[in-house]
Structure formats: C-alpha cells, structure tokens
Write a structure and sequence with these properties.
Helix content: under 10%
Number of strands: 12
Strand content: 15-25%
Strand order of the largest sheet: 1-2-4-6-8-9-10
Distance between the termini: 55 Å
Length: about 130
Amino acid sequence: MNLGREIGGVGWEIGGVGWEIGGVGWEIGGVGWEIGGVGWEIGGVGWEIGGVGWEIEGVGWEIEGVGWEIEGVGWEIEGVGWEIEGVGWEIEGVGWEIEGVGWEIEGVGWEIGGVGWGEIGGVGWEIGV
C-alpha cells in the first residue's frame, strides 16, 4: 500500500510511511521525514533537518552544525562530533576515531589499531601493539 499526499507547501509520501512539506515534510522507508529546513529520514530510524537532523542505519543523526551518525554508534558535529565503527569520534579541531580504540585532534590526537598516538602540536608518538 502506498500512502502519499502533498499540499502546496505541505505534503507527505509513504513507501512505508513518510511525508514532505514544501518547507516541512518527511519520508519513510522504515520511518522518516524531511522538512525544507527540518526533516528526517529513516532506513532503520533517522531524520535530518536543513539546520538540524539525523539519520540512522543502526542509530545516528547529523545536524548541520551539530549531528552524529551511527553504524555501530557514533556522531559527528560540524565543529564537534564523533563516529564509531568500534567506538570513536572526531571533532573539527578536536576529535578521535576508534577501530580498536583511538582518537585524533587537529593538532592533537591519537589513533589506535593496536595502540598508538598520532601527533600533538608537533609532538606525538605511535605504538604498534
């Protein structure tokens, strides 16, 4: 069954469930919606908003300026954020990412395959463990 409707500046469409509105709306494969400046979309679950939003495969969301995305678990924020495969996050200017465990910061940070440090403002070290 396919449900869907659009109203001048308002409307929505459903594959599973969903709708969109000129400036507001959402669409669902599983569940989701998007709004010109606000909205979200779900494969599993998720949504995105022009300036705010998130999307989930496992779980996650992203916001222009703030947001995160998860495969395992994680999020990223423009300016601040992190992403996880195992576990990790990265921040523009500060952040870290983990496959095993680790993080990196612009100017400061470290990353671990086994264990290791990247470089910190001209100082750093790396370990093969």
